[in-house]
Amino acid sequence: MLTLEPALARGGSRRREGAGKLAIALAGGGPLGAFYEIGALHALGEAIIGRTLTDFDVYVGVSSGALVAAGLANGFDTTTLGSTFIHDEATVIPFAPATLMRPALAEYLRRIRLVPEVLSGIIRLYSRDPLRGAWPGAADALGTLLPGALFDNGRLERYLHATFSTEGRTDDFRKLARRLYVVATNLNTGESVSFGTPRHDRVPISRAVVASAALPGLYPPVSIEGREYVDGVLVHTMHASLAHEEGCRLVICINPLVPFDAARAARASGGERIDLASRGLPAVLGQTFRALIHSRMQAGMAGYRARFPLADTLLLEPDRHDEKFFLANVFRYTGRRQLTAHAYQRTRADLLAQAGRLAPILRRHGLELDMTRLRDRERTFSTSAKERLRDVRHVVRRLGGALEHLEHVLAGISGE
Fold this sequence. Notes:
alpha/beta
């Protein structure tokens, strides 16, 4: 679903063509959200003429969106991101899915070491007042034995550090050619912190990304300069205001977290309504989390329009009745490919459906829509990605041939 929020006119005057900086703001949503964003961005990137998505001025990322935003800011286009995280065809450093699901063994061992102390405390509590019982206090004490996280995020940080440290990339906010903001939440204060700002730009990008994506319960908090940080989405969903405050006049926002409308999905498909309650606790908690996040995001978007009236804002989200998105199994490679391809096609359809309203907005920023590509029904995420890789290889071959020719010419000159 594409929502357009054109800038509010002031005095009937119009801004000059191509004025203002461009930004991309990406919300969180776990692995599923990242795969959706890669597919949507890929469709958007090939449909826009005039600026590549790796050549925008400002990038803002929260949670899993931070990983995608950091990749774009570092020059990794959606073809590279898709090859690495979707198709297991990394052109830089191979990525193993097990990186995201490595058990937090250190956390488990730390809790196990607490068992003797906790049990002895329960025994002392019971011995002081055996008649009244000690179960309330015992239950509280036993809660401290539960691991604070299921998976370890240390390996992901090492992978990102190695990737961002390759030639032509950087793991240092201060050395980026573009502005990047990665938002995390201070666990002990509940405040959001924007890494990449002058006060918080010395931390490595890889560590900031892992902190922003440390969803409580799944991944442990990340310690940065003596403070513990967790998922940035806990305070705000998008944090697009960071881009607006940088003076960006076109901000493209992507939010993968929208609540599922089971009734509408049943009407659209003609099938039976999906009962989320029957799918157990994960479905119930997931729907609750999406509803809370989405309502907060809508309030934030409304505030942007009032606070930044000169900015054009585009918001891309999944359709609320999209069963393929909500029922996808992102822990299987086939599920990831299907989800990314589906996000790609749905975004293309949204762009084409609103091309008449979207084109004038883009034109104000020196951009155009490639209507030929949007109308091409044969295009898919895989074929277009292969097309772009083929173009890159062609350029590399031509460059290699030119360098070889230059070498022969120089050799001839030196031999005269």
